[in-house]
Design brief:
By secondary structure, the protein is of the alpha/beta class. The chain is built from 14 helices and 16 strands. Helix 9 packs across helix 11, helix 10 crosses helix 11 and helix 13 crosses helix 14. The structure holds zinc ion.
Length: about 400
């Protein structure tokens, strides 16, 4: 028996989502270019854009300057001020909330300090909900929140946003997604993702990783997280807990103890504490400021800081060489605090990759720092929040506004 293909309606829904995704990720674009990119004829594109326009998701405008004779193709823009998501980022030292418009524009962003005070679910949820209330008060009355996403620095159960393990703050099985959803009281579920998975997706869709189907993202925030994109998709593993690159064992015999209970993990050897200890600065600044102080001192010729970065760079290079041999990525990205560590130890990292990476595996790989800066994981959380409306625009919009 012949298997039934997708119905006309399914194709239409799929095309609406694809078109909205092009406008969301690529910015204002003409109908002609959309027709080219989607391989559809102009009348189909016109029908799709007029549906999205009446739904209030995009608007169409004449281009400002065409420089050409004849009737110009209308430009389709996302309704960035009207349609938005709430995005949250829970890092070790800070809590961030933002309203992010369709198209990826950060419209309002608020930040609070998070004390390193152990299991603090109630505090975290309360602070985030407070920031969100202030953000909501400033939003235009006719604007619509179409999703909520959060990045958390730990291992996250897909589906309900349970934090199974967050080693730096001692979180074990904390119902973060559900609690935040209740406290926000918007009637919308909160999608939660691991911060480094979301950082990888953000760099892949909006950052230095655009156009790379295979990349490795390493994120430093006290510890080290990771996200690996293979064939354009995040490698999430059987339970969603994949890519814990920070807990790859690089130094099992003489290694430093790790927050996960093991010894000699990559994050134990290259994380914040390892660098501060190696530089003899453990009692001074911590967090991103502490890391920057070491990298800056090394740049000014401070020998202890230079030696510390060489040591950390060596371990980082061992980790990167292993990842290159395993995944043959086109790009390795250093984000979060690892941006600064990589800047201060790039020579050492390259030496290790040259010594330990397979020649064929590394012949084309590029090593770069993240371009989305301190908001990389927040931007990833926003993309997670947008994923539903981009998959089924009219259906999700109807549900949100009903
Ligand atoms: Zn570990």
């Amino acid at each position: 028996m012949l298997k039934a293909g997708p119905s006309q309606e399914e194709i239409r829904q799929h095309n609406l989502g694809t078109l909205l995704r092009h406008v969301h990720l690529g910015g204002p674009v003409s109908r002609t270019v959309l027709a080219d990119r989607m391989g559809l004829n102009r009348s189909t594109i016109m029908a799709l854009t007029s549906e999205l326009t009446s739904a209030g998701l995009v608007r169409e405008e004449l281009p400002k300057e065409t420089g050409r004779a004849g009737r110009p193709s209308l430009v389709v823009r996302p309704e960035s001020d009207r349609v938005y998501v709430l995005a949250f980022d829970v890092a070790v030292d800070r809590l961030v909330a933002a309203r992010v418009g369709l198209g990826g524009k950060i419209l309002d962003r608020r930040e609070a300090v998070r004390a390193r005070a152990g299991a603090d679910l109630d505090d975290v949820v309360e602070v985030l909900a407070g920031l969100a209330r202030r953000i909501h008060r400033e939003a235009a009355p006719d604007s619509i929140c179409v999703g909520v996403g959060a990045a958390y620095c730990g291992m996250i159960r897909p589906g309900d946003g349970m934090v199974r393990f967050g080693p730096n703050m001692g979180w074990v099985d904390q119902a973060f997604g559900a609690e935040l959803g209740l406290r926000l009281g918007l009637g919308l579920p909160v999608s939660v993702g691991n911060e480094a998975h979301l950082g990888a997706l953000a760099e892949h869709e909006r950052g230095v990783g655009i156009g790379f189907a295979n990349l490795v993202y390493l994120h430093g925030d006290v510890g080290v997280g990771g996200g690996i994109i293979v064939g354009g998709k995040l490698l999430d593993g059987d339970g969603g807990y994949g890519c814990e690159l920070g807990h790859m064992i690089v130094n099992p015999y003489n290694g430093r103890p790790c927050g996960c209970g093991s010894r000699g993990c990559l994050e134990a050897e290259v994380g914040e504490q390892a660098l501060l200890d190696a530089a003899g600065r453990a009692s001074e600044l911590v967090g991103h400021d502490g890391i920057r102080a070491v990298v800056d001192a090394a740049g000014r010729g401070d020998l202890a800081a230079q030696n510390a970065l060489d040591r950390i760079g060596d371990w980082l290079g061992i980790g990167v060489a292993n990842l290159i041999n395993l995944f043959n990525p086109g790009l390795v990205i250093f984000g979060g605090m690892l941006r600064d560590i990589y800047r201060g130890s790039a020579d050492q990292v390259h030496r290790r990759v040259a010594a330990n990476g397979l020649v064929i595996s590394r012949e084309k790989v590029q090593l770069r720092t993240s371009v989305l800066g301190n908001d990389v994981t927040l931007i990833g959380a926003a993309e997670l929040a947008f994923s539903e409306i981009l998959a089924r625009p009219l259906e999700v919009l109807a549900r949100t506004t009903s």
